[in-house]
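ingest -> fold -> write
write: protein_1
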Amino acid sequence: MTGAAGNDNRIMGDALMAERANADQWQRVKHRLKTELGEDVFNSWFARVEFEDADKAGVSLSVPTRFLKSWIQSHYQDRLLSLWGEERENVARIELIVRGATRVKAAAPAEQRGEAPEAPASLPAAVSAAIAAPQPRRAPEVPDGPLGGSPVEPRYTFDTFCEGVANRMAFAAARSVAESLVGKASQFNPLYIHAGVGRGKTHLLHATTRAARLAAPGRKVVYLTAEHFMFRFVSALRNQTAIPFKESLREIDLLLIDDMQFLQGKSVQQEFCHMLNALIDGARQVVVAADRPPAELETLDERVRSRLKGGVGIEIGAPDVDLRRKILATRYRAARDVNPGIDVPETVIEYVAQSVVSNGRDLEGALNRLVAQWQFTNQPVTLASAEITLRDLVGAREPRRVRIEDIQRVVARHYNVSKADLLSSRRTRTIVRPRQIAMYLAKVLTPRSLPEIGRRFGGRDHTTVLHAVRKIEELINGDHTLADEIELLKRMIDE
């Protein structure tokens, strides 16, 4: 028995080592992509890509939507293959799978045979199985017909949404939209919901979409991510079907747009503005979600921002402790339905609710880890072990978003120059150095890409920004006074 247990431990140890190696390789690939593409482009296309599996010949990655799979295959397949080839020898293929549909299909044969599903082989899959909802997982819904739309997750309903003080207004407004009469927009038009990551924006939009379709089956309800809208518009232009595409969009009764911050491209934004005006003027309902208020969507056309600001904007705040308890209780019940023997003491659940404060996604991730700890160690979950397992999540808060305008204002005031001077073409030393410092701070304190920073500094080329960043980095290494001065500026900007 001892020998068998030793073999089991070695097998598990080898599996965990392989898991860590795969995770490290994927992190390096993502870092390279982010460096090459810039923060905005990377977040648009790769933020939701996950590593699934790897063998000697290839790597499997998963994405949440078929659209995202198609886009990455068309634009980044070769680059992914090249980067993975630098991490693993003999990689000949990159396989992209859609998470919802693929996992359901994989589980179907065992269920049809009346057998128990096969035990998961890797940590992410095991954790996913442990916290899955008690009802069978269904593939995301995609509406038929020419209007199309992005997939809608069946689990995201109003019934499964955890309501609290932080999201009560957004929840009530979304329900009002879903229950409004066909052909009559609600009083919240456009309804604009904004919040940081993991606070329930997408859940609310999916729930609104499904509830509106159920309330009035004849209603034309379309849910689209901003990236899907861009893809469909570009495809329509390429296929010379732009006019039917525009007409189909303007026939919508309820349009829901998610991740508005990713809408890019002048022609795409112009068409979106025309469609937005046509729908609102025709008493059709529009719901938009983004990670910040309209005024802070700096890459968005001013006319679009103005129309969005003219609607009703509602922010979903950070969950308070009561809402965090409710989220954890809901997820824990779902986990126990799948694993009846799991036991996470109430003291540990309360510790998580009090300590993980940033958003619901981090709360779910914390519970995932505790489930994994219970599954793989066969040891009871205690407060001491939970503190170790969750130490990087405890107390984590969403960092304050820094805008380039804030940096320009603080730097201009500190060096006694005007903001207009920073954006001008003047090249006197009293202007050039503050401008370079402001560009450097914009690069290190914001997720903006070099081209975006250049545009915000008077339409400069990205190479100018890169030169400024490297120049300040070089000066900081040899000039402690300047280094202290820049640290002071960072604190001033963060205040």
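write: protein_2
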Amino acid sequence: MNKQSFPGGKEESLEQFECEVRQRDNPAELKKMAIQARSKDECARRLLDQGFLVVSIKQAGQQESAGVSKIFAGHLKGHQTNRAPKGGQGLFSKGVTTRELIFFAVQLSTLLKAGIPLLRSLEIIRKGTPNPYFQSVIQKLSQSVSGGSPLGVGLKNQGKVFPWIWVNLVEVGEATGKLPECLEEIAKYQESATRIKGKILTAFFYPAILSCAVVGALTFLLIFIVPKFSEIFAQQNMTLPALTQVVISLSNIVRNQAYLLLLAFVPFMILGYLVKTSPQVRLSFDFFRLNVPLFGPLLVQITVVRFARALSTLLKSGVQILQALEICGRLVENSYMESGLKEVIKRVRTGQGLGVQLEARKLFPVFMTQLVTVGEETGQIDKFLDLLGVYYEERVDAFLARLTSMLEPIMLVFMGGVIGVIVVSMFLPIIELSTRGGM
């Protein structure tokens, strides 16, 4: 350890650091250097100023610095409740959750902003990841980067672990020198997309449970209860009301010819196959979905949120408008919308305004297209897209809340009504028999 005097009479010690670097014009060649600096951050800055790509830095004669992990302490303090506990999720399942991907982007962005080299950042994240499978994925990323490949290529080589939009944005970040900012935008976009999906699932969870309860109750009544009454009626040679005959016939079908009920699913299976294999059928089906009463407006608003969030994220990350629109076309997950956006891209490529073309194609609500036009005119389109994302996400929340409050009583009334009809149909002959006996 050496000491160096600075103005004011103070002495500050210099540490010896062992560094591994690559030259920007020859990234395949790994070089080792010894640098004296006051801190690891200063060492990294000096190497970067000299034009080197920093692979790793460690203090001479020691393992990695124990203080680096403290970088996350303040940044993740508010997120600790969302972290997967040790020995929990991921130990027995081969996969990576969306929450783990979001934390990966947040952590990597934080470390890179702090001046920690990419390889060292990946190693820190790998050691703090409780999911063994994700640890192996990050290890492969480190090996790819240490071999001279860009991070975007490493993400692409991991199959379906990382969404394809991650690869696009990371490649843009590496090309523009804004990788930490792009990773931060990725985390925000992924968080927003996950939040919307979670709200939709939550809204339909209770109705789905009620539907399963209705089906279970009907099946139990038709298989076990109705046949008992049917035997009694047959022994009495009773003339049954039409409603009772219908219920008994349905019970016989469920018990003896259940395979006929499966035929009802055949048209849906055929439609699903055609939607998956035929672009024209998928286009018509997606157009139909957007125009279904009650649920159509909800899908439109969800599409607006996806489009606005994605386009804002891409533009902030430095993606050109035409390329960003092409990516957004795939992210809206609707072939009709995607087809319309392709036509918009053609017009925008000739110099026409985005908002005007979106309004001309009538893909989105007028309020949304008008704000996009204002954003273009003021040069703040990303800010207006953020406002649109927030506004329509709040509308989706309100719509789902109203829909849930409507579906719950409707499902309860329907469940009670169907079961009541079956019960009444079984007791009608008994009441009729009792009335005749009393006469």
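write: annotation protein_2
Confidence is low (pLDDT under 50) at residues 3-11, 63-93.
The longest helix spans residues 381-438.
pipeline exit 0
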